[in-house]
Automatic annotation (TrEMBL):
Residues 51-387 form the Peptidase A1 domain. This is Peptidase A1 domain-containing protein. Residues 1-22 form the signal peptide. Keywords: Aspartyl protease, Glycoprotein, Hydrolase, Protease, Signal. GO terms for biological process: proteolysis. One of its GO terms (molecular function) is aspartic-type endopeptidase activity. Belongs to the peptidase A1 family. The keyword Cytoplasm does not apply. One of its GO terms (cellular component) is extracellular region. InterPro entries: Pepsin-like_plant, PEPTIDASE_A1, Peptidase_aspartic_dom_sf, Plant_Aspart_Prot_A1, TAXi_C, TAXi_N.
């Protein structure tokens, strides 16, 4: 359930800005005229605790589905030539059956942008190996027409023919990455902004991803904004993440201690749970235990550290309030961090960032804690804005 933050795509070794031009020629958002350059992508929750989009690839179109990964480095799907692949809910994509598929030749700017130690050219077809958030994959670099929600675009993508992903991802055939890399859906479609609003996982309703001009907040004085930040050093290459600076955290009226310089927050939709710097996590864990008023289970349900029998919980857990740089405050109610998991147990859907084996004071904000909050990423202004919303009504 946790996400190995250190597992970064090898294609990102070269800077994003140096490679962006090579990818932008492939992708262009071709949305319906009615959206004026914007697009809406319905996404839904799966039992594997991911948000997933259904779409098509190729001409004629072939069905596919993929996990929406905010920090994902590229777009990829399994292909029919796959020799070692996980189970998926749709047929494997067959590039030979698409009139618009083009295998990327060796020697092109796109192929040459891949580091030589992970690039392989055989029969003048550009191939690659990469670590993704789901596991290691390898395949061919290709371009084809994607229809995602109301958007249609020609995208460069990974046509995966081998992976070490065990079992299944509960239906999806790959990942659609939105990260700060040239391979992501966001960069390839050239949008200046995007947003998403995640409906509660147990609501049985679609959520939505908005691209381009469709990415707007309702406003009404409820929106807050904070700058996106960058961090480097300490052996952490986190350039694919959207990051903000956490400067305050409260559980109800109690202040939760943070490092003197605050904590860099990685926004994430692949991991359903959050990771707090260890001191803050221990304080939140204690505050929740006192508020719930039930003895914690001696053996929590994996992978959680804190679980309670649902029948014994008598108290109300407090809201958590995250305050980011510039005073932007985001409220996370108890329903977003106490997960009604299984067998009558309620678990704290947060863990210590010590589990991430990072040398940097990091907080990771997972998808469960983002439910019913509309997030807007303005890539021109380099800001993150957000406001509370009923996400079931925005899809």
């Amino acid at each position: 359930m946790g996400r190995p933050v250190a597992a970064l795509l090898v294609l990102c070794f070269i800077s994003v800005t140096a490679r962006a031009a090579a990818f932008r020629v492939h992708g262009r958002l071709l949305a319906d005229d009615a959206t004026e350059g914007g697009a809406v992508v319905p996404i839904h929750w799966t039992q594997a605790m991911n948000y997933v989009a259904n779409f098509t690839i190729g001409t004629p179109p072939q069905p596919a589905s993929a996990v929406i990964d905010l920090a994902g480095e590229l777009v990829w799907t399994q292909c029919k030539q796959c020799g070692r692949c996980f189970e998926q809910g749709t047929p494997l994509f067959d590039p030979t059956a698409s009139n618009t598929y083009r295998a990327e030749p060796c020697g092109t700017p796109l192929c040459e942008s891949i580091p030589s130690d992970v690039r392989n050219c055989s029969g003048n077809v550009c191939a690659y190996e990469a670590s993704t958030n789901a596991g290691d994959t390898g395949g061919m670099v290709g371009t084809d027409t994607f229809a995602v929600g109301t958007a249609k675009a020609s995208l460069a993508f990974g046509c995966v023919v081998a992976s070490d992903i065990d079992g299944t991802m509960d239906g999806p055939s790959g990942i659609v990455g939105l990260g700060r890399t040239p391979w992501s859906l966001v960069t390839q479609t050239g949008v200046a902004a995007f947003s998403y609003c995640l409906a509660p996982h147990d609501a049985g309703k679609n959520s939505a991803l908005f691209l381009g001009s469709s990415a707007k907040l309702a406003g009404g004085g409820k929106a807050a904004s904070t700058p996106l930040v960058n961090i480097s050093g300490n052996g952490n290459d986190l350039s694919n993440y959207y990051k903000v600076q956490l400067e305050g955290l409260k559980a109800g009226d109690a202040m939760i201690p943070l490092p003197p310089s605050g904590s860099t927050v990685l926004l994430d939709t692949f991991s359903p749970i959050s990771f707090l710097v260890d001191g803050a996590y221990q304080a939140v864990k204690k505050a929740v235990t006192v508020a719930v008023g039930a003895p914690p289970m001696a053996t929590p349900v994996e992978p959680f550290d804190l679980c309670f029998p649902k029948s014994g919980a008598s108290g109300a857990a407090p809201d958590l309030v995250f305050t980011f740089r510039g005073g932007a405050a985001m409220t996370v109610p108890a329903s977003n961090y106490l997960l009604d998991y299984k067998n009558g147990t309620v678990c704290l859907a947060m863990l210590s960032s010590a589990r991430l084996n990072s040398t940097t004071e990091l907080t990771l904000l997972g998808s469960l804690q983002q439910e019913n909050i509309h997030f807007l990423f303005d890539l021109d202004k380099e800001t993150l804005s957000f406001e509370p919303a009923d996400c079931t009504k925005l899809s």
